[in-house]
Design goal:
By secondary structure, the protein is of the alpha/beta class. It has a single domain, classed as 3-Layer(aba) Sandwich (Rossmann fold). The chain is built from six helices and seven strands. A hairpin with a 2-residue loop joins strand 6 and strand 7. The chain starts with 9 loop residues before the first helix and ends with a helix.
């Protein structure tokens, strides 16, 4: 079955607004748009970010995003086909990663639409958070959006080494959409007792 490109909807617009609020001109050097889909979040990032990498597992989505960037005259976006971080080099770091993740739960027996479905349990969502921290600069963060029906909890993300806070939320028919910010919890970021005090 040919993979469709996810059309922007309420979730896209809520995350887009969160990006506009979080990113001011010159505050972000490099950003990653994970699962770029139609490309609207890449364009939003490109307006205030020096360099944007947009990736998607779906080649049609990559082509659609590239076409939108050309139409908008956004020349600071690089596009790649990638299954999560499979085509992102280990040494590539980002100040911000955004992901309008596929958050609709489906069972393994059902056919998954990778643009919208995360599976139960959401293995790909877990994998993302397990790998994302190594691609963030010191002080870097993730903005992601989920639904009240998504089988991914804040504790799931915290268990993978992050501190999480709510950025914004919106009630839509049958669900509530929430944008979260996640930052890696690293030992080196915590207050250290000087050696001269403990010796």
């Amino acid at each position: 079955m040919e993979k469709a490109v996810y059309e922007p909807k309420e979730d896209s617009f809520l995350l887009e607004e969160a990006i506009r609020t979080a990113v001011t001109p010159g505050s972000i050097g490099r950003a990653l748009d994970m699962g770029c889909g139609s490309g609207i979040l890449s364009i939003t990032l490109a307006k205030n970010v020096g360099n944007v990498l947009a990736v998607d597992i779906n080649p049609r989505a990559v082509n659609a995003s590239r076409a939108l960037a050309e139409t908008e005259g956004a020349g600071n976006i690089e596009f790649r086909e990638s299954d999560l971080f499979s085509n992102v080099r280990p040494d590539e770091k980002f100040d911000l990663i955004v992901w309008n993740m596929p958050y609709v739960p489906v069972s393994e027996e059902d056919e998954m639409d990778l643009a919208t479905s995360c599976g139960t349990p959401p293995i790909k969502l877990f994998e993302f958070f397990e790998k994302a921290a190594s691609h963030l600069t010191r002080g870097g963060r993730i903005l992601y959006i989920v639904s009240s029906i998504t089988p991914l909890s804040v504790s799931d993300v915290e268990a993978r080494g992050y501190t999480v806070r709510i950025v914004s939320s919106s009630k839509v028919p049958f669900e509530t959409l929430t944008v979260f910010e996640a930052r890696p919890t690293m030992e080196s970021d915590r207050i250290q007792v000087p050696t001269s005090i403990v010796n």
